[in-house]
Amino acid sequence: AYAELGLPAQELDNAVIRTLDRIIATPEVNGPIALERGTVLYTYADPGLESLPSIQKQLLRMGPENVSRLKEKARALRAALLEAGN
Fold first, then answer.
1. Cα dist. 47→10, 17, 33, 69 in Å?
2. Model's pTM, two decimal places?
3. Phi and psi dihedrals of 84, rounded to 5?
4. Residue 38 has what pLDDT?
5. Which long-range contacts (CB under 8 A, 24 or more apart) does 10-17 make?
6. What mean pLDDT comes out for the span 76-80?
7. Could you give phi then psi for residue 33, rounded to 5 degrees?
8. Which residues contact 45 (CB under 8 A, 6 or more apart)?
9. How far apart are CA 9 and CA 25, in angstroms?
10. Tell me, what DSSP letter sits at residue 8?
11. How far, in Å, CA of 74 to CA of 12, rounded?
């Protein structure tokens, strides 16, 4: 399926690793996150959070406990993929 999108099939593992790295790099934010209401969507009031990649902003919406769990799983999956590649 990856190759059908016109992307090199041999790069799939690297793409997965890059995505897992982005998940793992999501900042840990404890406590409420201030939002601002735009014309249609809410945005983060903190420019640092608003400038994060979309996947990280979506993860923050899950709450700190769920982000922590997901990051733990992402680290384990990343390590397993790297070990399998060796």
1. 37, 27, 12, 25
2. 0.72
3. -70, -30
4. 81
5. 13/81, 13/85, 16/81, 17/78, 17/81, 17/82
6. 94
7. -110, 125
8. 33, 34, 35, 36
9. 25
10. -
11. 16
